[in-house]
Design a protein that fits this description.
- The complex is a heterodimer of chains A (about 160) and B (about 190).
- By secondary structure, chain A is an alpha+beta fold.
- Chain A has 2 domains: about 30 residues, no CATH class; about 110 residues, no CATH class.
- Helix content of chain A is about 25%, strand content about 40%.
- Chain B has 2 domains: about 110 residues, RNA polymerase sigma factor, region 2, helix turn helix motif (Rna Polymerase Sigma Factor, Chain: A); about 70 residues, no CATH class.
- In chain B, helix 2 packs antiparallel against helix 5 and helix 6 crosses helix 8.
- The N and C termini of chain B lie far apart (about 40 Å).
- The chains are: A alpha+beta (about 160), B mainly alpha (about 190).
- Chains A and B meet through helix 1, helix 2, helix 3 and strand 10 of A and helix 2, helix 3, helix 4, helix 5 and helix 6 of B.
């Protein structure tokens, strides 16, 4: 499809649009429904801690990107005066993390389908989740005093 | 403010219909971007979901709401590249690299990649067009084509104005594609002259 052939006639252009539509794949209905449902998270959005580092793409060392069994992926989120560092271990899909400065209470791991997991945060700001399924996740501190966390991390696919 | 920008502002203020309209416009584009990087359908579904969740986080703070489609495509591409590394797969071709390196020439790209890139540029242009044009062109490009009478009824137009409107919309699409990918237009005119 080129602007040249398009310039020839409207009919040629429509023919090519038709061809384009037949060779491109539409998003499956379930994917579209999930995208519509993503809006449910809007009301919960606080300050967002952006993904600042992901060893998958940000490691300078090419070799470090090729992970063998038991290799780990490291992520860092920064925002609202805090940093959350996370390590994902391949072997058991465990997610170990640390929030700095520490938030006393728990860490909530949110999944796109609306389900959440919760893990206690110790005095060093450390927390751990076992066997986290693949898919998009976001972390949100839930302070012990019951207030909602003042920030959450960007969604990332793990 | 164009239609996309308006939808973004409405979604940011909590309008679920505006959000759904944005999904309707861009879901196929986000999906295509993820698939074009070589991801399987389950992985592309994760990328799509992450992209829309991120968009939901940022819908209120986009620098240029009318460029939401570009934001979505760029985010989907980055996330797809990330996930393809997670699966230890190699990316053979990344037709969306131009989003980050708009100045890069096409000299080193294979023709398959150029085709894919062109397809997605057109898909992107269609997604950001005014609703009326988008609906009209999608109907006109159905296979077999929808008759003028039905298009007129669907869009609430007089039958006599479908032709002229179609012409205007095609012209607008041409301009958009040229504006979106000047390097593609240049490549095409230098190598595919009739």
């Amino acid at each position: 499809m080129t602007p040249d052939s398009w310039a020839r006639s409207d009919e040629a252009m429509l023919q090519e649009l038709m061809a384009l539509r037949s060779r491109t794949e539409a998003a499956p209905p379930g994917v579209v429904a999930a995208a519509v449902a993503a809006f449910r998270w809007r009301s919960l959005v606080a300050a967002v801690a952006g993904l600042e580092f992901d060893s998958l793409v940000d490691d300078d060392d090419q070799l470090a990107r090729v992970r063998g069994p038991g290799g780990e992926r490291r992520l860092r989120f920064v925002g609202a005066g805090r940093a959350i560092d996370v390590a994902l271990v391949d072997a058991n899909r465990g997610l170990a993390g640390r929030v700095d400065p520490p938030v006393l209470g728990s860490m909530v791991l949110r999944r796109a389908d609306g389900t959440t997991l919760s893990a206690p945060v110790d005095e060093h700001g450390q927390f751990f989740f076992e066997a986290v399924r693949r898919g998009p996740v976001s972390l949100r501190p839930a302070p012990a005093d019951g207030t909602l966390g003042d920030f959450e991390t960007e969604w990332v696919t793990i | 403010m164009d239609e996309v920008g308006d939808l973004v502002l409405r979604a940011a203020s909590g309008d679920p219909d505006a959000w759904s309209a944005l999904v309707e416009r861009f879901a196929d584009l986000v999906w295509s971007v993820a698939r074009s990087v070589g991801l399987s359908k389950p992985d592309a579904a994760d990328v799509s979901q992450t992209t829309w969740l991120r968009f939901c986080e940022h819908v209120g703070d986009l620098r240029d709401p009318s460029r939401a489609g570009s934001w979505l495509a760029t985010t989907a591409r980055r996330e797809a590249v990330r996930l393809s590394k997670l699966g230890a797969r190699h990316i053979v071709a990344d037709p969306w690299s131009w989003l980050e390196h708009a100045d890069a020439g096409l000299g080193e790209m294979g023709s398959d990649l150029v085709d894919k890139e062109r397809d997605m540029t057109v898909q992107y242009a269609l997604a950001v067009m005014p609703d009326r044009c988008r609906a009209l062109l999608l109907a006109a490009a159905e296979d077999p084509p929808v008759p003028y009478e039905r298009i007129a009824a669907r869009l609430g137009l007089a039958v006599g104005s479908v032709g002229p409107t179609r012409r205007r919309c095609l012209e607008q699409l041409r301009r958009l594609v040229e504006q979106l990918a000047p390097e593609l237009a240049e490549e095409a005119s230098s190598s595919v002259r009739p």
